[in-house]
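Minutes, project check-in
Item: structure for the 295-residue chain
Input as provided by the requester:
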Amino acid sequence: MRSKDLGFFLGEAFKNLRLNLLMSVTAVTTTAVCVLILGMGLLVDAHVEGIVRNVGQDVAITAFFPEDIDQESIDEVVSSVEGYPEVNESAYVSKEEALERFRETFAEQPDIAGSISSDVLPASIEIQLNDSSDSSAVADRLRTEGFQDDEIRYPQQTVDRLNQITGYLVWGLRSATALFFVASVLLIFNTVRLSIFARRKEIEVMKLVGASDSFVRTPFVLEGLVQGLIGAIPAALLVVWMDSLFVGWAQENLPFFPISSGAVNALLVLLFLLFVGALVGVAGSFFSVRRFLKV
């Protein structure tokens, strides 16, 4: 496409926007609302997945070493566990550290705290997982290291329930986001179609004087692109700004919830929402004008 042609098509597109201001404002507003809803769905989905991931990492497996094991064997097991791909981090807890923890727990009950010696509490290794669903696999690995069933502690029932509930929640959010996206496309399509329907006589005249389909369609497609971007830009910026506000507020007022600013890639979300707005505008214009090209 030559620059002269592009200038002509852009001029026609902006002229159509100006002459059909009401329909253009309707299309832009609809795009903005739909992009905003879609963006909020993406944010909720990302933060829920982040919370689930953090909660899963808090699920710990504790393996207690037998009394007759020597320190060299303990070091070998600890080194081996640290190399498990499912393990986020692990920590060796000696008998002395276990006793210190016990005494801190029962600090307000000195009779209980003073009645236990370090020989009673076994050494152990505490394991944090990357994914709570890997707890059974890690437990099986620990058994191959020589641990018995009664020496391994992990809340399997809690882990299974957590995975089930969060799985339903995440997929429910994704389904809702997908429905909002489909509704957005249909709404924009109908809005643009009404706009083009109002100018069907203009299209018929252009076709009768010999204009090609691409020549007729291009100004409308560019018009849809402009409408989509004008609606998507403020909505996308608002989504990113709201995410920043939410993260700051949550970290200050909800410290017990693992809300992380890294859960959402702001630049990626911004570019995706702009792309969606442009795509919806272009697609709506392209398919709407096609039915009026058959003259």
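Outcome recorded: DSSP finds ten helices and four strands in the chain.
No further action items on this chain.
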